[in-house]
Amino acid sequence: MAWCKDVEGTRLLIAPDSSATGSSGGRLLSLCHPKSGQKTCYLLVDGVLQELNWLKQSYKSWFLGNYVCEDGSIYAATPIDPVFIMLPIFEEARLKKGEDPGKFRQLDEIIFIDGYPGYQYLLPLAENCMQVVCEVK
């Protein structure tokens, strides 16, 4: 994932406890940010998509067991509506040209994005998102 390259040691992540719901844990996904277009890390836990945000404050440290995170950085997982992630993909999938309103395409074809295999895990969420913002046949 882009956020953990060259990161050594333990990091602190604040996220929902997946063991409380009985799930096996979450999945880190590398997706395209809807505004910037840059690769961004997201967390998918129990069908809820969450964006990972990196926060760093000066002169802070975290004590994690026998480890000290000296730089004071922390990752926080905040829920995000999957519609915001899927909207640019749906817009591009229309294949709109001039006055032509666009074409209907299969969801499996729309959700396949070269270089971003994480979108495949969003297929169940994409079906619900699509009905909110698109005409579905």
From TrEMBL:
Transmembrane segments: none annotated. InterPro entries: RNase_H2_suB (IPR040456), Rnh202_N (IPR041195). Residues 25-81 form the Rnh202 triple barrel domain. GO terms for cellular component: ribonuclease H2 complex. Pfam families: Ydr279_N. This is Rnh202 triple barrel domain-containing protein. The lineage of its organism: Eukaryota, Viridiplantae, Streptophyta, Embryophyta, Tracheophyta.
